[in-house]
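Project standup — Tuesday

K.O.: blocked on the structure for the chain from last sprint. Re-posting the sequence here as requested.
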Amino acid sequence: MAQQLTVGEATVLLLRALGHFIRTEPWRATFLALWSLGLAALLSAVWGSLKEHEPRAASLFGLAALGWGVLGILFL
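H.V.: unblocked you, prediction finished:
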């Protein structure tokens, strides 16, 4: 049976893997960080538009977020 990791052990393993990814592929890691920030900004704009009851703006931001997500997946 597989060994269950504690939250601390899993966090350390995740951070080590992230550090290895940044060291071995810095351009890809930079692109991934910028893509993640852009996607978070677009999703935040969708949420803000929904809270302000602006469905047209929310749908436009949603389509932009969807396109941004697809482009990021294609380029990774």
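K.O.: great, moving the ticket to review. The radius of gyration is 17 Å. Residues 31 and 75 are 9 Å apart (CA to CA).
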